[in-house]
Amino acid sequence: MKVALLGCGVVGSQVVRLLQEQADDLAARVGAPLELAGVAVRRLGRKRDSDVDPALLTTDAESLVTREDVDIVVEVIGGIEPARSLILSAISAGKSIVTANKALLAEDGATVHGSAKKHGGDLYYEASVAGAIPLLRPLRESMAGDRVHRVLGIVNGTTNYILDKMDSTGASFSDALEEAQALGYAEADPTADVEGFDAAAKAAILAGLAFHTRVTAADVHREGITEITATDVSSAKAMGYVIKLLAICARSDDGRSVGVRVHPAMIPRTHPLAGVREAYNAVFVEAESAGQLMFYGKGAGGAPTASAVLGDIVAVARNRIAGTHGPQESTYADLVVHPMGETVTRYHVSLDVADKPGVLATVAEMFAKHDVSIQIVRQEGRGDDAQLVLVTHRASDAALSATIAGLRELDIVRDVTSVMRVEGEESS
Amino acid sequence: MKVALLGCGVVGSQVVRLLQEQADDLAARVGAPLELAGVAVRRLGRKRDSDVDPALLTTDAESLVTREDVDIVVEVIGGIEPARSLILSAISAGKSIVTANKALLAEDGATVHGSAKKHGGDLYYEASVAGAIPLLRPLRESMAGDRVHRVLGIVNGTTNYILDKMDSTGASFSDALEEAQALGYAEADPTADVEGFDAAAKAAILAGLAFHTRVTAADVHREGITEITATDVSSAKAMGYVIKLLAICARSDDGRSVGVRVHPAMIPRTHPLAGVREAYNAVFVEAESAGQLMFYGKGAGGAPTASAVLGDIVAVARNRIAGTHGPQESTYADLVVHPMGETVTRYHVSLDVADKPGVLATVAEMFAKHDVSIQIVRQEGRGDDAQLVLVTHRASDAALSATIAGLRELDIVRDVTSVMRVEGEESS
């Protein structure tokens, strides 16, 4: 079995290392040796982490992926192009594909999956979501006999590291980000992580697998964590919550549509996701028969991601030897992705209000007007002002937004200091 | 695709229900409808939870499993016989097998797997360990490109429920057991659970998958939880530990042998397994490249177990349609299972000693004589007596046993009140 590798960076060099170091074990597990046929890189001269034979390096990726002796093409370049064109060429040439490319699958999965279907080839992508955690295979195969209701995931290690630091040390967002950057958990330009783009791509892939439907990155409602303050974190803490950036994929109550969203949310400290510290990832799945499941592990890094890539290489190699292929993309359910306004959840709202009689009544009336029912109110005087903290029962995002807009119009409301969704409770 | 079901109890009746309720989804995922061909039961007249068509019931299981129109045989009877004979007949007749039978696979996996290999048929058993948690497929497939070092699992919900109650309420073992029985978490005869037999069978299956070798239930060192006292639990708590019944499968330091054991152990409260409450299961995996992974969910119950069975049914049905089969048992590594004495871990030892000068020196000398190094000592006076609590560095079980035997011989040691292994710390 000959393997062509596209990209030899952090993940690619680990794939090379593992193919070499574990050659005997891999051969025994596949039933044939896995041989590295070539490694496509952008520049030949660059110093690399791995001991890849320089004779295997090439800058001509297009020729490599269609070379007759190549069986499996592993793509760890990332991004849309040239990854898409190379993968499509490889599929057309009858190769099996292993990729870690979340952006491509989330933005244009239709083209890539469609081509794999047409040519009857394998397209495996375990490493694209939550790195080392075996997650896509369980969703695609182990849960194929169950009905998934909801997926709640911490799928971005950078933002979890930042929020965890803010929670454990009281740091501000910018201080925590700086620390994450110093430790290599965050990029110099952290936008893709802190604005939720990375998590949104993963949410699209998870939702598609969980609900057997097509979801693209554009379908995902996305909010980042840059507005989270140390005060938000400490008031969440005071109420027994922790703030996490969650990727949430949920079936609507009638089962006819799905909502897919990435945003910071409060979850109870007793929830299994609350204990996910530092840069770890975890995905919580609620299914009709299985009940609550959680998958936990490292979501990024060279070796962890390479572990997932290698698992896929073994699987597609076995399939090739058996003359078959694994399950193809399943989108038969063809569900509508509903707009964010139709999402139903609970909300935690903080208001600065004038401290005088009748304020609570006026505020409560605004919630009632939009059919948003209040579960908890806490009022704290602060001289002339008072702080009102409210937690609602389940309400639609549209109703909540209308409520907030109405509150901002009220004279007695000085400021809406924070609005955050509350997830992971029985009643939510 | 015609499915024959052996057994229609707690799990079987849920399998019937799901096959009926989710027929359309299952057909779309498989690519062909799944039809129930027959259900073998012991007695025809019994009242059942499911709406199984009485015309499908039969007491002649042997004829059902070899019936020409049957494609897939699902065994949820449990126990060694008649399950083994029926499965072997079905395999010989070319059927694909889905089973939840941990006892059979742990005691005589060689015969069953051997027959499946010989006839080229599928034998899937996701439900046999940790119920609904997708665990065997990830170990067998997702991690096929990695090297697993260690598996630490809470794989028995009954004992986890009991230990969790003891931890959270201070209850005694017998009171917690009674509560578990009242709630249906424990059987009237709880031996299989509380003595660790159930966990040992699962440990054997996990070790075989994780290390690509054959392990049987007889290879597993087994200790139950009946001797755990409320005092053990509270002293563990005082030191930041929680006591769990763990199934531990570990490669030796030189990689040439494996140890497989089930026993109560202290783990730090910061360990991800420490937060596994009530009757939930979780399995923690340490692999060379992937790092630390955890899988969490419901380990038992009709619907959760049926979810895992259905996932396997979908997989073997897809394989049948594609004219192929999934990965077969992988035992190429053929590792030795080392005896418990060679297991290396840390220990927590409590002693009642005479409260006089020189006692600690004498005790410490006994540990040193057997090359067991002490990490922490805590001494508390109690009038004439004192309590000594010691935590060791890593030592072999044989060395620790010799130390304990030596301590018992000392006049100044009134009693060895507790010896417990400490797991889940970086240094262990």
From TrEMBL, chains A, B:
GO biological process assignments: methionine biosynthetic process; threonine biosynthetic process
Gene Ontology molecular function, alphabetical: homoserine dehydrogenase activity; metal ion binding; NADP binding
Superkingdom of source: Bacteria
InterPro entries xrefs: ACT-like_dom_sf, ACT_dom, Asp/hSer_DH_NAD-bd, HDH, HDH_cat, HDH_CS, NAD(P)-bd_dom_sf
Key words, A-Z: Amino-acid biosynthesis, Metal-binding, Methionine biosynthesis, NAD, NADP, Oxidoreductase, Sodium, Threonine biosynthesis
Cofactor needs: a metal cation
Enzyme class (EC, first level): oxidoreductase
Enzyme Commission number(s) of this protein: 1.1.1.3
Residue ranges of every copy of the ACT domain listed in the record: 348-421
Catalytic activity, reaction form: L-homoserine + NAD(+) = L-aspartate 4-semialdehyde + NADH + H(+); L-homoserine + NADP(+) = L-aspartate 4-semialdehyde + NADPH + H(+)
Positions with a binding annotation for L-homoserine: 187
Positions annotated to bind NADPH: 102
Positions that bind NADP(+): 6-13
CDD domains attached to this UniProt entry: ACT_HSDH-Hom
Pathway the protein contributes to: Amino-acid biosynthesis; L-threonine biosynthesis; L-threonine from L-aspartate: step 3/5; Amino-acid biosynthesis; L-methionine biosynthesis via de novo pathway; L-homoserine from L-aspartate: step 3/3
UniProt-annotated catalytic positions: 202 (proton donor)
UniProt family annotation: Belongs to the homoserine dehydrogenase family.
Role noted for this protein: Catalyzes the conversion of L-aspartate-beta-semialdehyde (L-Asa) to L-homoserine (L-Hse), the third step in the biosynthesis of threonine and methionine from aspartate.
The protein's name: Homoserine dehydrogenase
